[in-house]
Amino acid sequence: MRRITRIATVGIASAALALSATACGGKKSSDASSSPSESGQKSAAIAYDIGGRGDQSFNDAAYAGLKKAETDLKIKGAEAEPTDGEGEADKVQRLTELARKGNNPVIGVGFAYAPAIKKVAPKFPNTTFGIIDDTSVTGENIANLVFNEEQGSYLAGVAAAKASKTGTVGFIGGVEVPLIKKFEAGFAQGVKDTNPNAKVLSAYLTQPPNFDGFAKPDLGKAAAQGQLDAGADVIYAAAGLAGSGAIEAASAKGKWAIGVDSDQYNQAGLAKYKDSILTSVTKDVSDSVFNLIKSVEDGKPTTGEIRYGLDKDGVGLADSNPKYKEMADVIAAVEKAKADIIAKKITVKTAP
């Protein structure tokens, strides 16, 4: 049976109170780093990104890795959800609480956790901290789990160009940050290398510091509808939960959608649209989470940059849709592009 601990985030004032209590004679954070979990059982924790569990994409992929660790490694899993409008102090408190409870490793799902991990990790030197999609924060007990998203997105561009009948395809980014621009760059390059005459429409849902573009499906739906009205017949959205709105819009028009992060054809929450999900750019977030947890359980915690690319199947394209499997010309083009990237015959751009 699964046992999950959900940790609700409280306000900044509570965080300050907890920290001041530690300073006034309580157990030091570094002492707590080696404490067992409350039940005495080994445990690992993940703190979710914007959208939380149930986004059918990025966060759910991380959850799958934690669930696998629970089953295969017999550990206890802890989860912490984000809150609306939270700031850095909330993330600091969340990670601190997870570490104090003896969870090891503690994994922040997404680059937004970088400032908080930078503050918290030194206070718990015996705890391994993982962060997905970020290399800006480093330390002896920090593992940076990163991916060559541009490579998987290039393959999506190849597939989109081959599947398109109008010669116009669309890219939707959740928030205009360097990470998501990697998705755009690879996708656009894959499209143009396959069909130089193709048109790529690009749109971003929000600009930092507004990160609603990762969380609100209505924004993704509206952007996709605009691109569909402009002639796009394949839409690729790298927008977390907001991407489900783009998939809905494409399905309503009888056009193709390309999913992201997880194999969205197989996501229960998107079942009604699955026939319109041509493929998905997958990131092996699940295995990256599991592998880090296992390294800690084995007594050899992995730290530093851990990169997942096409050469290690860390990114790729899903082929769950039977309609995709029937597209021999698309599959052949994708496989050739994959082989050429691995052989370094193609260098994929990381910025548009």
From TrEMBL:
- Limits of the ABC transporter substrate-binding protein PnrA-like domain: 49-337
Ranges for region Disordered: 25-46
Q: Which residues form a coiled coil?
A: none
Per the record, the domain of life is Bacteria
Q: Name the InterPro entries on file.
A: BMP_lipoprotein (IPR050957), Peripla_BP_I (IPR028082), PnrA-like (IPR003760)
Which PROSITE patterns does UniProt cross-reference here? Answer: PROKAR_LIPOPROTEIN
CDD domains found in the cross-reference section: PBP1_PrnA-like (cd06354)
Q: How does the UniProt record describe the way this protein sits in the membrane?
A: Lipid-anchor
**Signal peptide residues on this chain, from the entry's feature table:** 1-23
Which UniProt keyword terms apply here? Cell membrane, Lipoprotein, Membrane, Signal
TM regions (residue ranges): none
The subcellular localization recorded is: Cell membrane
Q: Which family does it belong to?
A: Belongs to the BMP lipoprotein family.
Instruction: Write the protein's name.
Output: BMP family ABC transporter substrate-binding protein
Organismal lineage: Bacteria, Bacillati, Actinomycetota, Actinomycetes, Kitasatosporales
